[in-house]
Amino acid sequence: xxxxxxxxxxxxxxxxxxxxxxxxxxxxxxxxxxxxxxxxxxxxxxxxxxxxxxxxxxxxxxxxxxxxxxxxxxxxxxxxxxxxxxxxxxxxxxxxxxxxxxxxxxxxxxxxxxxxxxxxxxxxxxxxxxxxxxxxxxxxxxxxxxxxxxxxxxxxxxxxxxxxxxxxxxxxxxxxxxxxxxxxxxxxxxxxxxxxxxxxxxxxxxxxxxxxxxxxxxxxxxxxxxxxxxxxxxxxxxxxxxxxxxxxxxxxxxxxxxxxxxxxxxxxxxxxxxxxxxxxxxxxxxxxxxxxxxxxxxxxxxxxxxxxxxxxxxxxxxxxxxxxxxxxxxxxxxxxxxxxxxxxxxxxxxxxxxxxxxxxxxxxxxxxxxxxxxxxxxxxxxxxxxxxxxxxxxxxxxxxxxxxxxxxxxxxxxxxxxxxxxxxxxxxxxxxxxxxxxxxx
Length: 441
Description:
Blueprint: H1 2-13, H2 25-30, E1 70-74, E2 79-80, E3 85-93, E4 99-107, E5 116-119, E6 125-129, E7 138-142, E8 155-162, E9 171-180, E10 190-200, E11 204-207, E12 216-218, E13 222-226, E14 235-236, E15 250-255, E16 261-263, E17 266-269, E18 273-277, E19 285-293, E20 296-306, E21 311-312, E22 325-331, E23 334-339, E24 341-344, E25 349-352, E26 362-371, E27 383-386, E28 389-391, E29 393-398, E30 406-410, E31 420-428, E32 431-432, E33 436-440
Parallel strand pairs: 2-10, 12-20
Antiparallel strand pairs: 1-3, 3-8, 4-7, 4-9, 5-8, 6-7, 9-10, 11-13, 13-18, 14-17, 15-16, 15-19, 17-18, 19-20, 21-26, 22-23, 22-26, 24-25, 26-30, 27-28, 27-31, 29-30, 31-32, 31-33
C-alpha cells in the first residue's frame, strides 16, 4: 500500500495529478501510468449511473469545460458498418497548457460496451477495464509517456475502434480530458468532456423485384443493395455484354456461410443503390455482403441465402401495384403479345392498361417476370391465383434472355374472371412473392 502512495505522489509532483481521486490504494498502484477507469463523464443510461469526471475529489479549481480551451473527437465516419475498423483522434486545446491527458469509452444505447477499443501507439495510449459497476466497459487513455507536448501545441492521441460484428444500433463515444499545469497543484488544471454519436450505416440487400424487407436472397438472383456512398456516379452495365464485376471502381463481394468469397456481377451502381447478381455458387445460410470502392469497404451487412426467394417485378420498379407483365393472346393460329400497362405523362408513372378478354375464340395467358424463382423445388409446387381464381402454372423458371431474370407463364385466363383490378398471388415451397395486380375490362 505504501508503494501505491509513492506512485501517486510521484505523478502529482510531475504536475499531472489526475490519478489522485479517492480510490483504493491497490487501484492506484495498478493504474499508475494513467487515470483510473470510468471517469469519462458518460451520462446515466440503461441500468448504469452517470460516470464522474476527474473533477470529482481532485481537479476542482476551474469550471468544467472552460471556454479557455476545448476538447474534440475527430476522424470518425458519419456511419459505421459491422466489423469496420476506424481510427479516431482525441484533441485537447488550451493556450496556456502543454501537459494533457484523456480517457475515452464507446457505449451502446443501453450503456454497455460497443465494439473494441485499441491503441495505435502503445507508448502513448493504453486500454484499461472499467471499475465497479462499469467493469464491463473498456477505456483508452494516455500513458505516462503520452502527456507532454510542445508549448502552444494541442494534446492529441489516436485510437482504434472496431465496430461490433453484428448491427448494434447507435454508438456513443464519451471522453474527458485534462489540460494540466506543471506546478504540482491540481487547482490549476482544466477538465473537459466531449461526446460523439456514430450511427450504423443504413444497409439493406433485398430482392430487386419485390424490395421485401426480409433480407433473403438466392443464388443467381438479382439483388439490390441500399446504403450511402456506394459509388462515385451512376453507371450501368453495357446491354448485350457479359456483366462486369466492377463499375467505376465499385464492386460487390459475397462471403457465404462456408467462408467462400465471390465477386458478384453488377447491373448498376449509384451513390445509394447497387444492383447485382448473387453468385450462383453462394451456399445457403448467412452471408456477408460487402461493397468496395477502389478496394476499400464502404458498406457491409448480412443477408440470408436460400435456394428459393421469389419476387415479382412491378411496372414502376417499386415491388407493388401493377405488374410488369404481358398478355399472350392466342386466336386460332395467331399469337399476339400485349402490354398490361400504359405510361401516364401527368404522374410520370405506369398505370394499368385494362385487358380485353376478347371473344370466345381468344385464349389469354399471363406472363409474369421476377427473380429468385428458378430455385423452386418443382414446377408442380408453384401456384398462381388471379382474383382468387387458381390458374394453371405452365412454366416457372429462368428467362434465358436476361441475367437473373425468371418468368412465370399461367393460363388460360377464364372469361369469368370479372372486370376491374385483380390481385396476383404467387406461392411455392411455403414462400409467397409480393402481391401485384392487373386490370380487366
